[in-house]
């Protein structure tokens, strides 16, 4: 199980940190690669009555590669739900790039199937 650090800034519902941890853990559990750790930051804007004043950010360490997401919403739970969806998308993109030859890689000299040797 990955370590998930949650930071809360501003006035948030008391269960928001635990809800964020639960949602990010759900994303990590169905990831195809190992999620080593995750960091979530929930921020309430200065004016809570402003439109989309809650910002949620997350960075996941997926087997050494970062998966980042940022969303804004009107409520804390809405922001966390949107963040979960965005992280799902980011993990799918990482999987896509890992599987297809010629895709981006953390190691530019990594040999991929179907590529000529440099």
Beta content comes to 25-35%
What is the CATH superfamily?
A: Ribosome hibernation promotion factor-like
**Structural class assignment:** alpha+beta
Please work out how many helical segments DSSP would assign. 2
InterPro entries: RHF-like (IPR036567)
Protein name: Sigma 54 modulation/S30EA-like ribosomal protein
Blueprint (SSEs and pairs):
Elements: E1 3-9, H1 16-29, E2 35-44, E3 54-62, E4 65-73, H2 76-99
Parallel strand pairs: 1-2
Antiparallel strand pairs: 2-3, 3-4
Helix pairs in contact: 1-2
Task: List its traits.
32% helix; elongated; alpha+beta; 118 residues; 2 helices; Double Stranded RNA Binding Domain; four-stranded mixed beta sheet
Care to describe what's here?
The chain is α+β, with helices and mostly antiparallel strands and 118 residues long. The protein has a single domain (3-99), classed as Double Stranded RNA Binding Domain (2-Layer Sandwich), CATH 3.30.160.100. It contains two helices and four strands; from the N terminus they run E-H-E-E-E-H. Strands 1-2-3-4 form a four-stranded mixed sheet, covered by helices on one side. A hairpin with a 2-residue loop joins strand 3 (54-62) and strand 4. Helix 1 runs parallel beside helix 2. The mean pLDDT is 84.
């Amino acid at each position: 199980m990955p370590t998930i650090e949650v930071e809360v800034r501003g006035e948030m519902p008391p269960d928001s940190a635990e809800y964020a941890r639960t949602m990010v853990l759900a994303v990590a559990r169905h990831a195809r690669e190992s999620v080593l750790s995750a960091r979530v930051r929930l921020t309430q804007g200065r004016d809570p009555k402003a439109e989309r004043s809650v910002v949620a950010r997350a960075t996941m360490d997926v087997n050494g590669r970062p998966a980042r997401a940022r969303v804004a919403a009107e409520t804390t739970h809405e922001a966390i739900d949107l963040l979960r969806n965005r992280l799902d998308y980011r993990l799918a993109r990482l999987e896509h790039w890992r599987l297809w030859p010629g895709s981006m890689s953390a190691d530019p000299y990594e040999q991929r199937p179907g590529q000529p040797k440099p």
